[in-house]
Amino acid sequence: MPLPPLGYASGMKTASSFTTGLCLTLIGIGLLNSASARNEMRVRIAEPEVRPAVERIELTGSFVARRAARLSPRISGLVDTIAVDAGDAVARGDVIVKLDDRLAELALAQAEAGLRQARAAHDEAVRLRDEALRLSESQVIPSTEIEARQSAVVVTQARLDLAEAERATAAERQARHAIVAPFSGVVAQRLTESGEWVETGAAVAELVAADDLWLDVQAPQRLWPLLGGNPEVNVIVDALGGASFPAAVAARVPVSDPQARTFLLRLTLSEADPNITPGMSARVELRLTADSDALLVPRDALVRYPDGTTTLFVVDQQVSPPRAYQREVTVSRVDGDWAVIEAGLTPGRAVVVRGNEMLRDGDAVRIVERPGSD
Fold it and tell me: What is d(CA 68, CA 209) in angstroms, rounded to the nearest whole number?
């Protein structure tokens, strides 16, 4: 076999080395690209919004009856009968407690008899006066007699008026032996028993109007100027399985508690529910819209640290691949899914809302989802 030409073997070696080097270079480039692709963090971004912020505030309160009364007698006496018990519903004018009124009945009967007597005497005086006036036309009766009979009418009229007043006084005294409901409601408690002697002003029963309720809430004093309009109010009653009811502000009582720095906020439900009773608690959600615009970002964009620092990542999409940069921000408040940014962020910078847990400042990112995309 003839020997290869001089230099052939070295040429083959040189070509083989070049091919091997080229392959290694291509493999290295591929590995670098692959590593770069792996280092791009997959994130979702969102655009901040500039609009009036809505502040959501949650408070607690209790239902109270608009009308509640501790009923007491207007006259002292012995309790004769009690017509109701705790939990009974009564209508306005129904008798709650009745005192022994036997003496009042006798006094009324006496006054009525005196009234009848006075009326009869007055009628007789009027008849005699009229008779005297007719006889005076024929001049068969002296004028002094006519005058006397006219005076008798005046005297008997006064006695009749007195008798009528005495009869009305006796009737009112008898009526005061019955303690009646001043309004329709439910008896909350009974405070006396038959046979007890009760004095004027002593409570014998408590009555509440259970179908006419307020919801009283102690609100922070900073909310006073914000509740003058018509804020959106929602009431959640846990005792009714978390049932929710729209409500409206009925009154702001301008007397604050100097210790708690709160004032009384009184609400009324737009739709009454018969299952809500006085004393029942409720949660109140207030939604207050600010007068000026604010910068808002999704709450998921915030990254909080144990030292109280709050940051978020903004994305620079002008470079390839896009990069995320961490920014420290000041959060005014969080309302539901949105956070109000007070400082540290300018409008128009997209923020990372998913995938920001492992990000570091300056990391390359791959945007895998945008707002509104599928």
Answer: 6
Tokens of 234: 């929602």
Give the Cα separation of 329 and 308 in Å (integer).
Answer: 11
- pLDDT reported for residue 291: 67
pLDDT digits (tens, 9 = 90+) for 89-98: 999 999 999 9
Tokens of 330: 């000041």
Measured in degrees and rounded to the nearest 5, phi and psi for residue 208 equal -130, 145
154 or 291: which leads in pLDDT: 154
pLDDT tens across 166-216, in order? 999 999 999 999 999 999 999 999 999 999 999 998 999 999 988 889 999
Cis peptide before 321 (omega within 30 of 0): yes
- Residue 297's nearest CA partner among 5, 130, 51, 87 is 51
Q: May I ask the CATH architecture of the domain 101-176? A: Orthogonal Bundle (1.10)
CA distances from 18 to 14, 236, 334 (A): 6, 79, 63
- Altogether, the residues listed in the chain come to a count of 374
The CATH architecture that domain 67-99+177-211 belongs to is Beta Barrel (2.40)
57-65+212-291 homologous superfamily: Efflux pump adaptor protein, beta barrel domain (2.40.30.170)
What's phi and psi for 52, nearest 5 deg?
Answer: -60, 130
Pairing of strands 41-46, 365-369: parallel
Question: What single DSSP character describes residue 364?
Answer: B
